[in-house]
Structures are given as structure tokens and as C-alpha cells.
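Researcher: Re-running this chain for the archive, since the previous output was lost when a drive failed. Same request as before.
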Amino acid sequence: MEEKPNLPDLNTPPRPQHEDPGYEVVDREGNIKLPGYKSVDGGHESTEPLQSSASEQTKPVQALILTGFGINCEEEFAAAYRLAGAEATIVHLNQVLHGHVSIHDFDILNFPGGFSFGDDLGSGVVLANKLRYRKNAAGRTLLDDIKEFVAHGKFVMGICNGFQVLVKLGLLPDLSGTVTPEVTLTHNASGRYEDRWVRLKVNPESNSPFLKGIDTLEVPVRHGEGRLIIKGEEILAEIENRGLNCLAYTDFDGSPTDVYPHNPNGADLNCAGLTDTTGQVFGLMPHPEAFLSLYNHPDWARRKRQNPNLSEEGDGLKLFRNIVEHVQSQRPAAVAQPATSQFSS
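Model: Regenerated C-alpha cells:
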């Protein structure tokens, strides 16, 4: 009799390998203890359970970054928050789905880029369905928890594949307030994967703290399905009127454009990012976490020669500084902490 292969069950948390704690540690009684991931530096993961004795006023902003199922930009995401002065915790999505980690213990929930479930049924579709329909023992979905998370004044950010997930979930732009998909992201008008640097302009009507004080920024895109399609003139007009189209692709003169390759995907409204009506949920196709240092840019040497005083921070870091500082400012009797940086100007 032919034996069936022993394949992993993707619906259960990953088990530790020999001499490698992975994403969980099991004690002698079989209880799972989650590593703390106090450092995002490779090789320095902690096996200390998540805990904090710091006061609400002094503890760092807590950013939860999800990984697993093909997500692959979690380390860059964590590095961005660390540079902005926050504490970044990377966990496998299963740890949240199985109740080992609660999103409510964090200030900012983050969906990184990558290729969740291989984009087999469309970018972000499978992961969005998993969050919408998979119920835990209490009969709640992760989408239920995310809605509660936002209702409590907390923040959600999705980049690239993470943006696609938020759109397919209906969290962006959520004009109706019913978390029903109103727009979609589909294949680029060019018909191919786009990997290039783009210029973006912030919509001055946007109310999102992620973008406060930013006018323009330059970041890379890496996507095959980044074309935003808005169904119906009424929805398009409402998105414009409420300033939810928070980022636009621009040409060299800084004017929003639909001309390829400045607009790499042909998005409606030349839109590179959206917020919800509260400004708390923010998603974008470009990768700010890929431009944290001037030296990430292919033209850094010429620019530094032309302007020796040019800041050595990348444009993308501004978004992370903004949201970390905003969360800190919202805390009662918060003690202002200077943002840390490994860069100088």
C-alpha cells in the first residue's frame, strides 16, 4: 500500500525545527511560547515571551508586522519602524489567527509586500478571504478584530501586496463604512511587472497622519498588479472630494500624470495610495520601506556630490517617522522622545 506524503497543514502554526526555534517555542507541557523578536537584526531573535513593564507614557510605539504565506518584505518594514524609534515585532500570520498574538496589544498593524499565496487567484485575494472568513474559536474573524482595532483609534498600513489585501478586504477606501470592496487593483496597463523608481505627490486634502508635512517623495515600485480601478463615477468623485486618493504618480515637473512610465500601471486618478475616511488606514503600491537611506537610491553618488549637505535619510523613512510621532503625541502625558537615527546629514 502506497503511503500518503506527510504534507504540512498550512492552517496550523509552524512547529520549531531542531535547534531552530522558528516562530514559536514549546515547553515541556506542550504550551506554545512566542519569541519576542526584540531585535529585528538577523540572528538576534529573542525567545523571551512578549511582555512589557514600561508605562504607557514611556514605552516605545508598538508596530506589529505580519509575515508568512509568501510575504517577503517584513524585515525592511521592521527596520523602518526601528529607525523611526518604534519597537517592531514580526510574527507569522498563523500566530494571530490561532490567538497566540493579539493585534490589540499593538499601536500599528502592518501588512508588508510580497506575493501572498503566490498571487494565484489575484494579488491579495486569498489572504483577504482568509482574514474575512476564517473564524476563531470565539466565532470572530481577523477582519472583525481589525475593525475593532481601527474603532479604538489605532492604525493600519499596507504596502504593495499589503495594499492589495486592504483593498480586497474593503478596508480601503471604505466610503460606505461597511468594509465592502469598492475599488480593485489589477494588472498593470503595461501588461508586465514594473520595477522602477517613481515620484509621488501627496494630496494636500489628505487627513492621514502618515503623510503629515510631506509634499513629494521618491520611492521604488515592484508590482505586476498595481493598477487601481474605481467602479462608477460616484465613487470616483467621492474619493476625490474627500481627499482619499492621498498619493499620485507625477512626472519630472511634479504634476500628476497618466503617462507611462511615470505612472507605471495606469491607475485611475493616477493614484498610488489610498486612505480610508478616518485617515487611520493607509495603503500604497510603492515601497517606502525600500528607501530608508540615501544610499538605497541608484543616483545617490551624483546627488551627494552636487549637494554635500544632502540628508542621508531616504524619503520613505518620513512616513514611518510621521506615524510613530503621531502615536506618541496621542498618548496622555506623553514624554517626547527624540527619534533615533543611524544617519547623519
